[in-house]
Amino acid sequence: MEKAVLILLVEDEAMIALEVQDALNEGGYAVSILTNGTDAIAALNDAEHHFAGLVTDIQLGNGPEGWDVAQRARELYPDIPVVYMSGNRAGDHNSRGVPNSVMVQKPFASAQIVTAISTLINNVSSPSTR
């Protein structure tokens, strides 16, 4: 039996997290949801987890922001696909986002997140990009 591809979803708004999780599950992904940057960075540092992608909000309350989570993810996994979600910080993506990432501005359709992460995962796993 093939193991589902695991996505780390970092979102502090429960309704958005559940909506995105449902869409990712329907897209065939397993999802681990965390609600703050500190826990997300700890999960990334945990060698037991192997996340195939990261979907993160930018503003996560106190502690590290989504920018910081993505930066740590890329330090550990240089090719990990990253999708950012933001309502009012999307304009910072060019200066703060990790290379080859995607910004999806809120409000969005959950399918946009699935399409974005799927495209990035496919680009990483494609032999032509190596």
UniProtKB/TrEMBL annotation:
Disulfide bond found in the keyword field: no
Response regulatory domain residues: 6-121
Residue(s) carrying 4-aspartylphosphate: D57
Keywords: DNA-binding, Phosphoprotein
GO molecular function: DNA binding
SUPFAM superfamilies: CheY-like
GO biological process terms, semicolon-separated: phosphorelay signal transduction system
PANTHER family in UniProt: STRESS RESPONSE REGULATOR PROTEIN 1, TWO-COMPONENT RESPONSE REGULATOR
Protein name: DNA-binding response OmpR family regulator
Organism expressing this protein natively: Polymorphobacter multimanifer
Biological classification of the source: Bacteria, Pseudomonadati, Pseudomonadota, Alphaproteobacteria, Sphingomonadales
